[in-house]
Amino acid sequence: MDAASPRFAWQSDSHAPNWMQQAYEIRISTDEQTVRSGKGDIWDSGRVPSSDSIDVAYRGAPLHSQTRYCWTVRVWDNKGKVEESAPAWFETGLRSPSDWSAQWIRRTDPADASELQKMRWLWLPNADAEHVAPNTVATFRYLLHLDAAPLRANLHVISRGGFVASVNGKKTGSHTEWSAFDWEEITPELHYGAGVAGDNEILVRVVSPQAHEPATTAPAAFAASIQLTDENGAERRIVSDDAWSARAGDSGAWSAAHEVGPLSAHFSVGIDRKETIGGPDRIVTDASLFRKDFIVASKVRSARLSVTALGAYEAWLNGKRIAPQTLLPPGFTDFHKRVLYQTYDVTSMLVTARNTLGFMLGGGWHGSPLTWSGTRFFAGPDLLRAQLDITFEDGHHQVIGTDNTWQTAAAPVLSSEIYGGEAYDARAATPGWDQPGFDEAAWTHAVAGGVAEDLKITASPDAPITSIITLHPQSLDLENGAHPPVFDMGQNMVGNVRLHVHGPRGSVVRLRYAERLNPDGSIYTENLRNASATDYYTLSGKGDESYTPDFTFHGFRYVEVSGYPGTLTKASIDGLVYNSLPEQPSIRFHSSSDLLNRMSELGFWGQRGNFVSIPTDCPQRDERLGWMGDAGVFWRTGTYNFDIASFSQKFTNDIVDAQEANGSFTDVSPDVLKPEEGAPGWADAGVLVPYAAWLQYGDTALLERAWPAMDRYMDFIESGNPDHLRRNQLGANYGDWLAPDPHTPRDLIATAYWAIVARDMKEMATALHRTTDAQKYGALYEKIADAYRKAYIKDDGSVEGDTQSVYVVTLASGIAPEKLRPAMTARLVKDIEAHGNHLTTGFLGTPFLMFVLDDNGRSDVAYKLLLEDTYPSWGYMVRKGATTWWERWNGDTGDPAMNSYNHYAFGSVMAWVFRRVAGIDTNTSGAGFHHMTIHPHFDPSLPQVHAEYDSAYGTVTTDWSGAAHRFIVTTPPNTTATVVLPNGKSEQVGSGTHVYSVQ
Ligand code: BGC
Question: Is the CB of 314 under 6 A from ligand 1?
Answer without folding.
Answer: no
